[in-house]
Design brief:
Blueprint lengths: L1 H34 L3 E8 L2 E8 L2 E7 L14 E2 L4 E5 L6 H10 L15 E4 L10 H18 L2 E4 L3 H7 L9 H9 L12 H6 L5 E4 L2 E4 L5 H6 L4 H11 L4 H5 L3 H6 L9 H4 L4 H10 L4 E4 L8 E3 L4 E3 L12 E5 L2 E5 L5 E2 L3
Parallel strand pairs: 4-8, 5-6, 6-7, 9-10, 10-12
Antiparallel strand pairs: 1-2, 2-3, 5-13, 8-9, 11-12, 13-14, 14-15
Bound molecules: calcium ion (CA).
Length: 351
């Protein structure tokens, strides 16, 4: 009998040491990974103060900034533009900051010091800066800066929200890079709270559009489907307001009516893949263009090896797989002519 107890006792001891050893391993791995974390700044709004949090080699540095150091109130920009001479569009950067800046530099949208270099041109980011990669905040801050610089020069930067922006803002964190779990731990805030209503970038994101029109071109992350357009009045201003307001609505509440299916379903502006997957006829595309009062639609969301043109240049797909971190392209529309530009800055015609 005593022997049995002894065996059980020894067995329990062996399990507990294995567990504690595993725990130690996880913790020390964590510690090592944490010491490699460099991230931020994240600007938090606390009452009337701005607190800048930066992580340097795993250590959190906090700094109080003067209240006018960053804007804290953001009014949405205009969403319809006419007579714009040059436009550049790309999408689905997914945290691949280094590749994105290389592409923007080579194509002279920004200069070597990462400042605006596109004059009166309009740069459109067709959604999905968030998720997958590990330099999301860097990319957002660059866009934030370029937006201001462009405006001074008479140009514009438009950042359209894609499905991944809406996912993160609604606390769907399935696709965040694992680095951000540690950032989150260090800053003692859930990842979505780093872009919440009490942060500078969170408020800035909440002022962004989902759909935009420049000249005869519509820009939207997924696309405009026939289903969406027959259910909703096609009013860009109203649609953007609806999408903006939905950021701070809960999923449960949105799902209590057909709102969620309509604005967040597979036929919605941010999730639609029909131009690539549904074998639409030329007639379907023409109807969509008629209903949106446009000649072309530029979308991201569906990844291709390069910027692509479909349906006789009526649809452009600008997700050139930047998310893989290896290659990317940019769509240029200049004096109503369009071409692709490569990572080397070479001009290419569409196939
Ligand atoms: Ca997407």
């Amino acid at each position: 009998m005593n022997k049995v107890y002894l065996y059980i006792f020894l067995f329990l001891i062996s399990i507990s040491t294995t567990f504690s050893q595993e725990n130690k391993n996880i913790k020390s791995n964590d510690r090592e990974e944490i010491s490699n974390i460099n991230d931020g700044p994240y600007i938090l709004i606390e009452k009337n103060n701005l607190i800048e949090k930066t992580i340097v080699n795993g250590k959190v540095l906090s700094k109080k900034l003067t209240s006018n150091y960053y804007d804290t109130v953001f009014t949405p920009n205009k969403e319809i533009y006419k007579n714009i001479k040059k436009i550049a569009a790309l999408s689905d950067i997914h945290g691949q900051y280094d590749l994105a800046i290389k592409l923007l530099k080579k194509n002279k949208i920004i200069d070597k010091k990462l400042n605006w270099n596109f004059g009166k041109g309009h740069l459109v980011i067709v959604g999905d800066i968030f998720d997958r990669g590990d330099k999301v905040n860097e990319m957002l801050l660059l866009i934030y800066k370029l937006e201001k610089q462009a405006k001074i020069e008479g140009g514009r930067v438009h950042f359209l929200l894609g499905n991944h922006e809406y996912m993160v803002l609604h606390n769907d964190l399935r696709y965040i890079h694992k680095k951000y779990l540690l950032t989150s731990k260090l800053l003692k805030l859930n990842y979505n709270e780093l872009y919440g209503n009490k942060t500078v970038l969170g408020r800035w994101l909440r002022s962004k559009p989902t759909i935009l029109k420049i000249n005869d071109y519509i820009f939207v992350h997924g696309g405009v489907s026939k289903e969406f357009i027959t259910k909703n009045n096609f009013d860009i201003d109203i649609i953007n307001k609806i999408m903006r307001t939905s950021i701070d609505r809960t999923k449960t509440e949105m799902k209590s009516t057909d709102f969620y299916k309509n604005f967040y379903g597979s036929k919605s502006l941010i999730w639609y893949r029909g131009y690539f997957n549904d074998n639409l006829k030329d007639q379907d595309i023409s109807e969509i263009l008629d209903l949106t009062n446009s000649e072309h639609i530029v979308v991201g969301h569906c990844s291709n090896k390069e910027v692509v043109s479909l349906y006789d240049h009526k649809i452009f797909g600008v997700d050139s797989s930047i998310k893989k971190g290896k290659y990317g392209e940019i769509l240029i529309i200049k004096n109503n002519k369009f071409y692709r530009k490569t990572l080397k800055g070479t001009k290419k015609k569409f196939k």
